[in-house]
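Job type: complex structure
Entries:
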Amino acid sequence: MMNNIRSFIEKAGWPRVIIALFLLGLFVMAPFVRVRVDTSISDTLVRFGMNGVMVLAMVPMIQAGCGLNFGLPLGIIAGLLGAVTSIELGVTGLPGIFTAMLIATPIAIVLGWLYGQLLNRVKGGEMMIATYVGFSSVAFMCIMWLVLPYKSPNMVWGYAGAGLRTTISVDGYWSRAISDILAFNIGDFFYCPTGMMLFFAFLCFAMWMFMKTKIGTAMTTVGSNPEYAKAAGVNVDRMRTLSVVLSTVLGAIGIIMYEQSFGFIQLYMGPFYMAFPAVAAILIGGASVNKASILNVVIGTILFQGILTMTPSVINSLIETDMSEVIRIIVSNGMILYALTRVVKVKS
Amino acid sequence: MMTKKSSFQDNLSHFFVSNAVPIIFLALSAVAIPISRFSTQYLVQEMLVRLARDSFLVLSLLIPIMAGMGLNFGMVLGAMAGEIGLILITDWNIVGIPGMVLAMIISTPLAVLLGWMCGVILNRAKGREMVTSFILCFFINGVYQLIVLYGFGSVFPIKSPDLVLSRGFGIRNVTNLENIRKCLDNLIPLSIGGVAIPIATFLVIAAFCVFVVWFRKTKLGQDMRAVGQDMDVAEAAGIPVERTRIISIVISTVLACYGQIIFLQNIGTMNTYNSHEQAGMFAIAALLVGGASVTKATIPNVFIGVILFHLMFVVSPMAGKYLIGQAQLGEYFRVFVSYGIIAIALVLHAWRRQQDKDRARRALRGNA
Amino acid sequence: MRRSAVNVGIIIFFVIISVFLYNAGKGYNLLVDNKAITIDGQELQPYAWVNVDVSTSKKPVLLKAGGRDVVFVIGKSHQIHVEIMDEQKNVIKKIEKKFKLTRQSGDLLSIPALGSDVSQWIQKR
């Protein structure tokens, strides 16, 4: 029995076990500090669905050896463009959200392709460059949001009549369009966004299947052993670009999912730091810098979003101070740090 | 005759390529300055002030680059240590130069500790130093907030009530450093043609430059350069690689700590929770604008970089306003350029490195 | 052995410098009083007008009877110049005195007490 536990802990890694126990502890404490457990579970589920796709977007690039995708903002920008255009066109409900995705995907493919070309020329320094490419594009888009000719009164500054607002509400368009499919409530406090969960499950399943196809396995080989892959006739650069494109497209879809649940589109500096929670989540789930599985995505998102949801309510009621922001910073960045400092066994 | 002419052209094109970034910046500024309608006197004064204020921080980046650690984002840790020192002397109401020096003395042990920790962590992430130090910054920022926003005032006693938030503990968002405001700058005042020159600060910076030059020649400095060139060869030559790398980070962190204190004494107020983040970003961007790369940085890079970067910084909002009618655009433009320039420098460096690797591999294969 | 001795020496040096800097740079807000005050059972009356100049403060302080002001000084040792005047602001008496601030001394300077040569003219608030 003890041996089983010990081997489980070793395989899972101490940080993960500690975080899981911490989360469990928070749930146990909740009723004692007058925090409703059903609201907490409901909130966690919602946030799980909201963020899951963006965490999933990390998988292709990690598997292909391109490192953690700190350049997720590129995909997010594609998604934002899709969302904003869909509102400009005035499409509502499910068609609205699918219009957004339809518009976002080609943009994401183009951006992803360009981004992939860049990363192929800088092998070894991908993560840092990804971060700054992400930052620069968000800053560049800030200029664009001001200048692009969108006219819908919902989105534009009332005074000047031009230039997009910082936050745009999707209420009345496709707020919760996917979440609400097959959703159910238990009592006043529990809302289960079944539609969103099903959609996320579908994407996970699709990714899982893809990883088992010939192309998928080729991608994994490129990540774990590029020399062998090249010798086996795989075009390393092409696989890497494909992984980047996939990641960017998933990022675009991911932000649209996030927006339909959150209810708002955040432009300008909104996407600036959005890669970091996704990176932290997948690392908490057990991924390393060059190996990630769907299980990592699911576990990581639950743990990370669970902590984000529970910590404010429980700890604030406990010691009557709002420490949630600080805890979030320490936990998410600590996890990324831990993953970055794990020694990578080099296969030559 | 022919060879002389082509070599001049070669030299010229080589000069342009290797100094592409500062030249682009110079061109941009040359265009933007007349658009922004700033007077020369104003610009000269601004540049002098910023040179005095920011050079120390940028100089602190030189030593890790020499030791092959890349851009030391961990300098933000030193900035945080300096800020804690400043909070303490403000609480104790220590004024002027004694206050500033005392802040430096108090924060030094903290900066050494943080630098040592950063060095150890970076040693465990060889090959990924920059990302790791980048994330480490955020992490320590969280710890800093834990201490300053929650610890100060509750666990650690703070006497003066105007430093503390209304809830009773935690330092306010803006710390007034009126005590030490411009104490170093005004120590030896000089004014030429209406432009005030902070002589004392420049003397300190000059002293530091001399230190850097001297350091390069010492055994430790030579060791660092060897480690920076090739870790394995240095190891074989008997140099304690791990320890040398840690020392380079510690020195850089301590210097960043002093640099941040000098920076803040010029401004006179401190954004308790934001000042250090920007310090790191701007220092790195400025160094890169000056023509430095991830593996090579010289003292001229520092000063040229500070001037060019801040020129653009000061000029673009106004240029944006007059050009397009929105100052906000200029604001975003300069953010874009700050990040973009780091991205470009990183790309150029990694690209060149990969080309070298490919060339070496092809040579081994015999150009198959 | 010698290295650790040198290290300890350096640390002690910095501690001493820190203490020196602390004392040299510490700013104090001193209250200057021209109010009626009772010390050791002795009642002292305020003067009509006093002009007080504490060494390192910026400008002299003029107080009428019953007046009180704040003076910001740096450091521990100071010299105080007082000009005691009557209603018509003619100078009756001039006092110059050196004083040192310590932890126990307090930070209220009572001019009436000073003028009457009371030893405890620096009071706690």
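Summary: The mean pLDDT of chain C is 79. The longest helix of chain C spans residues 2-25.
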